[in-house]
Specification:
This protein is α+β, with helices and mostly antiparallel strands. Helix content is 37%, strand content 13%.
Length: 208
């Protein structure tokens, strides 16, 4: 029958709480049951937490720095969807470096004269001529760096013997020009630059 009075319930509670103290055997059994209960609770709690999912992070590490573009016509960082960029005061700006193009300028006659003299001496070579003699004729019109390149050239292999026409400027700026020079061999495109000593040839290639 159910216990309906407070005295009856109190008597039952006293018997339950007093049971472990009746003998050492009861006390040991009670401790074993308590340890087992605590262990079971400890094993079940992590499993319950993992099923419930991890709590959302709200610290700074969880901020997404990707800029999202809003509706069409809205720019990043405008009035569109906000991102973590606003929370941290904005990410470092991206610097765009424009391409610098040298301004065109009228050809300098002094530079054209240097190209003419250089091509004439480049094409003028005789059988048995020493490479050093050929280089010394070119040196007054050539940059030191390009003279070092020409030291590997065998004058007898130069595929021209004379300048055959007028020079034409293909590209011209204040400090640099590219000049087309026709010869009885290939047409040369000569690169001449303004140096401390004046205009000097810094390279060439064959157009045809």
């Amino acid at each position: 029958m159910p216990i309906r009075t407070h005295r009856g319930r109190a008597a039952v509670y006293r018997r339950l709480w007093g049971w472990p103290l009746r003998s050492p055997k009861h006390l040991i059994m009670a401790l074993v049951l308590l340890v087992a209960l605590v262990s079971a609770i400890g094993l079940l709690l992590p499993e319950i937490s993992s099923r419930g999912g991890a709590a959302p992070r709200t610290d700074r590490d969880s901020v997404d720095y990707t800029v999202e573009t809003g509706s069409e016509g809205s720019a990043p960082g405008g009035s569109g969807e906000s991102t973590g960029r606003d929370e941290l005061g904005g990410a470092p700006p991206t610097i765009s470096v424009p391409t610098v193009t040298a301004k065109s300028a009228a050809p300098d006659p002094a530079g054209i004269d240097v190209v003419r003299s250089w091509v004439k001496n480049w094409a003028r070579h005789s059988t048995g001529e020493q490479r050093q003699q050929w280089l010394e004729r070119l040196r007054p019109y050539t940059t030191p760096e390009f003279i070092g390149v020409l030291e590997t050239v065998e004058p007898a292999n130069v595929p021209a013997t004379e300048l055959t026409g007028e020079l034409r400027t293909q590209q011209s700026t204040k400090n640099s020009m590219r000049v087309l020079a026709p010869t009885d061999g290939p047409t040369l495109r000569v690169h001449v630059v303004r140096a401390e000593q004046g205009w000097r040839v810094a390279g060439y290639d064959r157009v045809d």
